[in-house]
Input
Amino acid sequence: MTQRVSRRRLGLTYRAREALGGYSFVLIWIAGFLIFTLVPLGQTLYYSLNQVTVSATGINLRFVEWNNYTRALFTDPTFTSLLIEYAIETLVSVPIIVIFSLIIALFLNLKLKFKGIFRTIFFLPVVITSGPVIQELVAQGATSVPGLTLPESVTSFIADLPVYLRNPIDYLLTSFILILWFSGVQILIFLSGLQKIDSSTYEAASIDGASAWEAFWKITLPSLSGTTILVAVYTIITLSHFSENKVIKYIYGQTYAVGGGIGYASAMSFLYFFVLILLLGIVYFLLTYRAKGQYG
Amino acid sequence: MRISIPLNRIRPELTSSQNRVRWEKLRSFLFGSRTSYGLVTNVLLYMVLIAIGFVYLYPLLFMFVTSLKSPTDLLNPMVQWIPSEVYAGNYEKAFRVLNYPQTLASSLLISVVPSLIQAVVASVVGYGLARYRFPGKNLILILLLATFIIPAQNTVIPQMLTYRRYGLLGSIYSLILPAVGGQGFRSAIFILIFYQTFQSLPKVLEEAARLDGASDLTIFLRIAVPAAVPAYIISIIFSTVWYWNETYLTVIFLEGGIQSLPMQLSKFVQAYENLYPPGTVNIFDRLNEAVKLSGTFLNILPLLIIYFVLQKWFVESVERSGVTGQ
Output
């Protein structure tokens, strides 16, 4: 009671008091965001415009304008080709992961026995996937589809393709299981999306004579449009943040390399971030554009 | 699916109505009806699922089988899937190379401690976002998503330099401090999980407690936290697993100090050659893929155990926590 009186004396409205309470809960995050995200982000941006040398006493900066960026884009052949490769591989993997996880989710949504066992299997990779483990498995050739040997005509056809087409196909063949391994969380997201669809919609459709096929295209898929965007965005981000990602490895290597340095690595990080945003934008646009064209 | 063979041609002694009934029964047994899938459909479904499941588990099976092969089995092209003997020598070597007891302990330390802190902070922030209206809330939610998107390498170098200045590089504080500020590894996901959880809880109890004069903190600790226990469990196990598997941040922040299992695995060849210098050991003790894969298996073994013990929490979590609500 005394508390309430004192608060009223302070002259705070209910609104202001509520806001104050909210800020006190969120404050720790705001502080953390400033210290561990915003300031380092700004510093990295600043480094990217400088030639950075680290000595025992401190950091020496020499302002070089956009030189680090132009170097990464126009004179470093490795970085640009890795970046293009990353973009293509991501654009190839995302539809595969989205479609595969949707199919598995549809299977797991059926009335089947042992559903739990299958769900456990499909989620297992999420738990064990780490950079070094994947690296070992790829090195031992455990990630390509077992028993898959292509006829010679196909391999020679692939070998004749231009490099930007050949690389993604090679990537598909050698790491197909790896791509699928990234769909664990996505399957569960789709599954929960499927379970949210009202079953009475299906009943109504089947009374009207719709087949299961029609119901899938006209009910299931449109209801999952939001979920699909979420899955696609999640997929792009996990693929782009994975520590075995070639661009990330290259940037990391350049941080400590003699010819590279922190400034150069920072510039590349920002270019990489920009491409990531671009990819997110492309995929988001494609998904929403289609949805708008068809259903709205 | 409807196959129309006139049955009276096959068994002419039956009348046509009997025929139809029997045929309908057979058809629904094989191909399903409105209420069940039928034998053929079921068999097909299971076959597809088992096939995909096999492809999915293939790398793991390959790893496990290879890790049990003796050097002679490895060279023998006849031995594919079933080793001629169960050979534990690879595991003995990998155990020593990985320095298993010590790296296991530090892996546990660097994954459990930050995730506990992360869960606590995420719940506080998530509660604030879910239960209070204040100006700038939407901005915070947008920035929260931004922290999820921004790649680690865009923020990691200045942090690393700062830690170095204060002598925190190589110690667990370099992982704990960001977690305290809600900027740990994938913190945004956990904050959103708590945000969703607290939003879906009924507000009535909290309002009643407020009328009784409980302070905001008491309401949070006494009412909100007990109701969100599942979200805590999910957050802690998920972030433990993710911290365990994370190598980009740990290599930058911990190298030279704490040595985790995945970090040691990525240096496996080097570490092996330190223990068993090439040229001084006989041919059976050379580094081969079976030893490497034993190391990999030892690396994921604790995670597998956690997974199978807490399996229910993992797979039901995404539905339960309602991450997909947005």
Summary: Chain B touches chain A through 91 residues (CB under 8 Å).
